[in-house]
From TrEMBL:
Membrane topology: Multi-pass membrane protein
Domain Ammonium transporter AmtB-like: 18-402
Broad class of the protein's primary localization: membrane
Keyword Transmembrane attached: yes
Name of this chain's protein: Ammonium transporter
InterPro entries the record matches: Ammonium/urea_transptr, Ammonium_transpt_CS, Ammonium_transptr_marine, NH4_transpt_AmtB-like_dom
GO cellular component, one term: membrane
Family: Belongs to the ammonia transporter channel (TC 1.A.11.2) family.
Domain of life: Bacteria
Keywords annotated in UniProt: Ammonia transport, Membrane, Transmembrane, Transmembrane helix, Transport
Taxonomic source organism: Aliivibrio sifiae
GO molecular function: ammonium channel activity
Subcellular compartments: Membrane
Gene Ontology biological process terms in this record: ammonium homeostasis
Amino acid sequence: MELSTTVSELRYALDTFFFLMSGALVMWMAAGFAMLEAGLVRSKNTTEILTKNLCLYAIACTTYLVVGYNIMYVDNTAGGIMPSIGALIGTQSEGADHSLESDFFFQVVFVATAMSVVSGAVAERMKLWSFLVFSVILTAFIYPMEGYWTWGGGFLSEAGFSDFAGSGIVHMAGASAALAGVLLLGARKGKYGKKGQIYPIPGSNMPLATLGTFILWFGWFGFNGGSQLMISDFENATAVGQIFLNTNAAAAAGAITALFVCKTTWGKADLTMILNGALAGLVAITADPLSPSPLAAVSIGALAGGIVVFSIVAFDKIKIDDPVGAISVHGVCGLFGLMVVPFNNPDATFGAQLFGAVVIFAWVFGSSLVVWSILKTTMGIRVTEDEELEGMDVHDCGIDAYPEFVSVK
């Protein structure tokens, strides 16, 4: 066997393994979302939110395999709008850097991430089965369409839109779908008063929420690092190291900024805001974790950590009830991440970034609003007032997450 052939096979094996391990890290983010959301909802809704997170992951893996990946990547016209519609993942291209199967696995966990954003925002009052039906449509069709326009080589890609690992394509898209659902769903009972009062509804388990945030932070190294797509040569290996550094720096800066904003605004270190500050930094740097210097990454994360606090407060003031702050973290900070890309990447322009952001939001929000409206008319999307009061665990699952302790006298 020639030396060049051996080297080529070794690089193929290494890049495939890198893809698979990065995908496994992103898959672990499903656990992070589950723990974060389980900690930020009330105890009576914990089993149901865990059921949602497990089932949406299973649904995403199935629908994206059957049709979604094909829509996004297989046999599409460069610069086009309408994808080819087929089934399964196509065939391995000759001379590829990694296996087709590893590429599918890495992509499918991103789809699940977008859907996970939705589950927290609609928590504590949405019907389980309506949510699962929507999960099928988002992961099979809505997400793959905008994925083709961007990462699949469609018209947004041709227009110069740049989103390295998915601040807009994944995170803002998930938030856009969530916003459409929340607007039709309405707020939880007791969240807002008739005279504009805002009543906090504390989460049930801060240790779980914190664990979930650390899991997401950890998984994000695969999310951003794996998006380099290769690691088998000097240039790409160095780039992956830079991406890891910048990803971590942005998250840390986001948490620190949120801490200081909370202290200066309310005199308290609000843990939920600090957790969201770290996640905001991660979302913002995802649009381009490679081009910025480490100090620029710190600045991006710090700004996002401040933005998310004020965004969560602003949504509450206009009575948009988001129990976990998902729309602010993934939507507002996803948009922020897209728009700061040109400051560090000379190949990106503000016009192309804004165009891409508007198209992604309009498509995902608009199509999601239609789907949610159909579900509201047919199946209904909101549980009854009695079911909401009793809790989703009893109504949907029949299992309490935290069986009550029996006191012995």
